[in-house]
Design brief:
Blueprint lengths: L18 H22 L21 H10 L55 H17 L2
Helix pairs in contact: 2-3
Length: 145
């Protein structure tokens, strides 16, 4: 009933809004592992598999994004809190200023209420026209300058 295993492991995902914060977390986890080794005479190994960097928006691009959305009568919903997620897009930010925008696809009347990466996801493809129009509006802003 009270068996103590010979080996154990912890596994998980760590996401931060800032790469400097991630370094702090990694250093602290290494210190914890070293402390456990000293306290209990065991061996601890900490391995990190690097994943996606944080997806952050360039504040200087905000006004152009807002203008593009409002010029198309698209509703702008700003998140109250930052959204932690892993996204390929985050690598673009390392090369150039960028801004990540979500386009909503929810439609309760059509029962299009299920999330991404589920077998029940469905959406009205008309939204793709709005997405293309949005990118066109952004490109036209750049043409004016």
């Amino acid at each position: 009933i009270n068996t103590v295993p010979e080996n154990g492991y912890l596994e998980g995902t760590i996401r931060t809004y800032d790469t400097n914060d991630l370094e702090i977390v990694k250093n602290q986890m290494q210190k914890i592992a070293e402390s456990v080794e000293l306290l209990f005479g065991v061996t601890c190994t900490v391995d990190f598999a690097e994943g996606y960097p944080p997806t952050t928006n360039d504040a200087q691009l905000y006004e152009g994004i807002r203008e593009a959305l409002t010029s198309l009568d698209l509703t702008l919903h700003e998140l109250e809190k930052p959204y932690l997620f892993g996204e390929d897009f985050s690598f673009y930010r390392q090369l150039a200023p960028s801004y990540f925008v979500f386009f909503g696809t929810r439609n309760v009347e059509k029962d299009y209420i299920y999330g991404l990466h589920t077998n029940r996801l469905n959406f009205d493809e008309e939204i793709l026209i709005s997405v293309a129009d949005y990118y066109t509006a952004l490109l036209n802003q750049g043409a004016d300058k």
